[in-house]
Amino acid sequence: MELIATLTDGITLQIVIALLIAGGCIGVLAGIFGVGGGAISVPVFFETFRAMGVTDDVAMPLAVGTSLAMIIPTSILSARTHARKGTVDMGIVKAWILPVLLGVALGSVIARYASPVIFQAVFVLVAGTNAVKLLFGTAGWKLGDTMPGRAGTSAYGAVVGLLSALMGIGGGAISNLILTLNGKDVREAVSTSAAVGVIIAIPGTVGYILAGWGQAGLPPDAVGFVSVLALVLTLPTALLTTRAGVALAHVMPQKLLGRLFGIFLLLVSLRFLAEIFL
Description:
The chain is mainly α and 278 residues long. 77% of the residues lie in helices and 0% in strands.
């Protein structure tokens, strides 16, 4: 009983309810947008850990690491469901495996030493750019009609891995932006991003566990920069709602799908922008 009391220190009924609701939202987002849900779980986890008394310099990497761990099951479920519908570009997924892993490794090393502002700034830059492109871009917003050659495609993969590790996401926001700028339609970009999320989440989680190992100020339940309690509370509802999200993604008009994703990313960007400057 003493151990349970220690592990749940700082957890209130409001926090439990918030995490359960967040889990459901994460699952829907994972299915609809081909993301692991990190764009919602990172801010939710960040505020939760702060409410538990964790300092900002620990709360932010802890939120990012826990988000990556959360993405493992949701991205696997989302990717498998999208693959059954035949919209995943496995050529890109295979080409990105090694560069994505290298990018994730570098991002995990940076996580041990970076200021919380670095994580938030990367989040705002990538999510905000994607939001503007989806909401205000036209057909002219393209870098090309197809993906570049091997070197360019590998470079894209490394960028996806690095920024995803710093943002605590499955790479959906970044890979969606890259793929749509290089000729992929929104639905195929969403489906392929879901598969890429699997490559990012597993090594990213391991990296954050190692990066946070032995760090001062972590809550009792944390394993490195991953909170076990937060995962236990969010995973059940996330897994229940992921398939529903995938079903919605395949019946929505592509234009509406893109606009909704853009609005969502814009709101998240504004939230972190306020955190940096206020």
